[in-house]
Design a protein that fits this description.
Elements: H1 10-18, H2 30-43, H3 48-55, H4 59-71, E1 75-78, E2 90-93, H5 95-111
Antiparallel strand pairs: 1-2
Helix pairs in contact: 1-2, 1-5, 3-4
């Protein structure tokens, strides 16, 4: 399984997603998106169908969120999206991108002294 040094908390992942430009695509589903990131982190690469079953969520919602996370660079797809059989696509966390986002969030939190704006 791919990993980032240290543990990635669910709230950290959700916060990191909120801080990205283009996150509007995720709509009101930050909690769902955070759960998806947590499951991918916990179990490794997964198909949208399997992830939807694990989370007991609608497949369309899961797939939409995964594609939005892909556009943000937080997750990647194997094989490439151009493949014709979508059932064989496995989504996984892009550890480098997620680590960079979390570092930025931590830096911003430290710079603000924990104050909310």
């Amino acid at each position: 399984m791919r990993g980032v040094a240290g543990s990635v908390a669910l709230t950290d992942a959700a916060t990191a997603v909120e801080g990205q430009a283009g996150v509007q695509r995720l709509g009101r589903s930050e909690r769902t998106t955070g759960h998806q990131l947590f499951e991918l982190r916990k179990h490794g690469p997964s198909t949208p169908i399997r992830l939807a079953e694990q989370l007991r969520l609608n497949r369309t919602l899961v797939r939409r969120n995964l594609l939005a996370l892909k556009q943000l660079g937080i997750i990647d797809i194997d094989p490439a999206r151009s493949e014709t059989d979508v059932r064989k696509r496995h989504f996984f966390i892009n550890d480098t991108a997620l680590a960079a986002i979390l570092d930025t969030v931590q830096t911003l939190a430290a710079d603000s002294g924990g104050r909310e704006s």
